Amino acid sequence: MRALEIHGVQDLRIVDRPAPDPGPGQVQICVEWGGICGSDIAYWRRGISGTAVMAHPFVLGHEVSGHVRAVGEDVSGLAEGLPVTVHPARTTGPLPTRLAGRDNLHPHLTYLGSAAQDPHTDGGFAELITVDAAQVVPLPPGLDTRRAVLAEPLGVAMHAVRRAGDVHGAHVLVAGCGPIGLLVIVAARAAGAARVTAVDLAVPARERALAAGADEALDSAEDMDPSITVAFEASGAPASLDTILRSISRASVVVQVGNLPPTPISVSLGQVVSKEIDYRGTYRFVAEIEDAVELLARDDLAEHVISHELALEDAAAAFTTQVSDPTSSKVVLRIG
Questions:
Q1: Average pLDDT over residues 83-94
Q2: Are residues 30 and 119 in the same domain?
Q3: Is pLDDT of 261 > 90?
Q4: Residue 1 and residue 16: Cα distance in Å, rounded?
Q5: Which of 120, 169, 231, 301 could be cross-linked to 58 through a Cys-Cys bond (beta carbons 3.0 to 4.6 Å apart)?
Q6: Residue 210 domain-assigned?
Q7: Alpha-carbon dihedral sign for residues 144, 146, 147, 148
Q8: Which residues of 75-107 are buried (b: 16+ CB within 10 A; e: fewer)?
Q9: pLDDT (mean) for 17-46
Q10: Does residue 51 surpass a pLDDT of 90?
Q11: 50 assigned to some structural domain
């Protein structure tokens, strides 16, 4: 089978690998679509994603969808031909009591397409993958595998919105309209937000935000509407966070969705105290991917997140498009 390995900075290779047969409790999946994520780009550009450093080649990708090809022993409820997506996380051992319900923070967690562990965890950019049956998420009727490739990042967005608390009837701000920011707009709408203001410096991103459900799209969060009480910082830019903290109303909630740099940054935090701002982090998701497929099945707004489709053999061009084309948003690979 073909798989997309990364061997170094800007060194992607299509390689032949043996197909991984499913063992007991496992499922083999024919992967049809793969979405390129910011972490994939980070490995490609620098060999590092967050604190994870690539030490040897591995298969990229954790946003995938396709069909069940085979099931191992002791697997029930999943059959050959079933359209599915995959929860990329796998945990080992019990979750500490204080983290109950927050499996995304499990101290022993592996993620598809990650160099956080050594040996690295191979990802889903391959014609066939084998995962635990518990990681397989069947698609509801009406959801095709192309749109379902957005289930993992939409799960991230839905988790971020839940971290904000009840947004029903609220006026929310989403700063940074890349793929995750756009999906936060979709998730906030689904959670009952009354109005969504999007912010991005790029015109194409603002246009895509309006298509994805934002009521207005601005180039700055300065002079923020005082009715905004919830903000999602999805760009990972310290200047964006600084502007939000300075501009947002008292007693508001700010959720940090975008990955901030791992080095010290300059942000004025005095407003967190004087305005009693709740500043919250959000990391991946727990089980929101199951809710994500249901939302994708009934709402087509997320379609506006996908900007380009390229074949697996054109992966290098796909990665270049993701970082250099000003009109790009979510670039997806046709794998199978």
A1: 96
A2: yes
A3: no
A4: 5
A5: 120
A6: yes
A7: positive
A8: beebeeebbbbbbbbbeeeebeeeeeeebbebe
A9: 96
A10: no
A11: yes
How do strand 48-49 and strand 52-53 relate by DSSP bridges? antiparallel
My answer on whether 183 and 270 are in the same domain is yes
What local confidence, expressed as pLDDT, does residue 58 receive?
98
DSSP letter for each residue of 281-295: E--S-SSHHHHHHHH
Contacts of 314 (CB under 8 A, 6+ apart): none
**DSSP H stretches of helix in the chain:** 38-46, 145-148, 151-163, 179-190, 203-211, 238-247, 270-274, 288-298, 315-324
Residue 193 has, within 13 A of its CA and on its CB side, a CA count of 30
Asked if 4 contacts 36 with a C-beta cutoff of 8 angstroms, the reply is no
Write out the two tokens for 210.
């309006």
Q: In this structure, what DSSP letter does residue 187 have? A: H
**CA-wise closest residue to 261 among 295, 297, 237, 234:** 237
Question: Is residue 293 domain-resident?
Answer: no
Give the mean model confidence (pLDDT) for residues 131-160: 97
Beta strand 52-53 pairing with 306-311: unpaired
For residue 329, the domain's CATH number is 3.90.180.10
- Say which residues have a Cβ less than 8 Å from residue 94's Cβ, sequence separation at least 6: none
Distance between CA atoms of 37 and 174, rounded to whole angstroms? 19
State the distance between the two ends of the chain, measured CA to CA, in whole angstroms.
10
Q: Which residue(s) pair with 5 in the sheet? A: 13, 59
- The rounded distance, in Å, linking the Cα atoms of 124 and 113 is 7
Tokens coding 318: 């796909």
Q: Name the pLDDT band for 109 (thresholds 50, 70, 90).
A: very high
Distance CA 37, CA 64 (A): 11
Can you tell me the distance from the alpha carbon of 46 to that of 28, in angstroms, rounded to the nearest whole number? 31
Q: How many CA atoms within 13 Å lie on the side-chain side of 203?
A: 0
Is residue 129 in a domain? yes
d(CA 285, CA 104): 6
Q: Nearest CA to 295 among 124, 147, 145, 82?
A: 147
Residues 50, 107 within the same domain: yes
| Rounded Cα gap, residues 218 and 57, in angstroms | 41
